[in-house]
Amino acid sequence: MSNAVRIFTHAFTMVFHDLGATLRATYVGVSLVALSVVLFLTLAPNMFGSMMLATETDAFNPDAFGNAGAAVVAILVMAVGYIMMVAAWHRYVLLPEGQRDGGFTPGAGIVLGYFGRSLLLGIIVGIAAIPLFVPLGVIASAGNDILTNLVAIPLFAILGWVLLRLSLILPACTIGKDMKLTESWAASRPLSGAIIGLTIILGVVDFVLNLVISALPAPYILGVVSVITSVLFALVSASILTTLYGIAVEGREV
Predict the structure, then answer these.
(1) Cα 167–169–171 angle (5° rounding)?
(2) CB of 130 within 8 A of CB of 113?
């Protein structure tokens, strides 16, 4: 667990010790995420509030979905923004000095490659989740929430562990390396213990952030704060993945 804490602390520090440099490296992606929020607030404000709150009342509010087309555009802009942001961060950390002249903003090929690999990872983890969540569904059907949560936590930790072990292909993609899933799994093997610790840390941080954000009073404030928090959380998560790649593939020290 100490290695996990050390990696998490290093990744967190990389993002926040010079936030200005972080934003200069990722400004294009961050700007697109900000643009998506503006699109939501100007073209589909009811949809924005409903999505952030995700309450049952809003789910059946017909006004909330009165501008679904604009919301879809905003979601696509936001998704591209997130990919460009995290890809730029990988490049900022991993590219050697001699290859930094072109900047860190990824081109269309990298963005599409990152999206395709992310989609592949999602499918793999989704398939892996099926046998794991069969017993969870049986327990949940019994109506015992405490037991369901006790079983769900380690299952999510296992899936997060598998995802991180395979995800070294993502930073590799951003610097022109075509890493295979099997290579990612093999390279991350020495860090497998630290990776399970990292999944626990990220899970706890995510839970605490959601708990704090859900206490905010107004839906639009909640929505904006949620996006800002998710941007920072995504950068820290990308920083962890970049750190793992640096250690496992490039032999860097933390």
Answers:
(1) 90
(2) no
What's the pTM value of the predicted model, to 2 decimals? Answer: 0.86
CB 54, CB 207: distance < 8 Å: no
Sequence-separated (6 or more) residues with CB below 8 Å from residue 51:
71, 223
**How does the average pLDDT of the chain come out, rounded?**
86
pLDDT one-digit tens code per residue, 135-180: 878 888 877 777 777 778 888 889 999 999 999 999 999 999 999 9
The two tokens of residue 242 are 């970049």
> Which helix (H) or strand (E) is 47 found in, with range?
helix 45-53
166, amino acid identity: L
Alpha-carbon distance of 47 to 30, in angstroms, equals 21
- 25's CB contacts (< 8 A; 6+ apart) are 88, 89, 91, 92, 104
DSSP 8-state class, residue 62: G
- For 53, the token pair is 């709150």
Taking the C-alpha atoms of residue 203 and residue 208, their distance in angstroms, rounded to an integer, is 9
Cα first-last separation, the chain: 15
| C-alpha torsion sign, points 233, 21, 25, 76 | positive
Maximum CA extent, the chain: 60
pLDDT value of position 162: 94
The Cα–Cα gap between 82 and 88 comes to 10
CA distance 13 to 9: 6
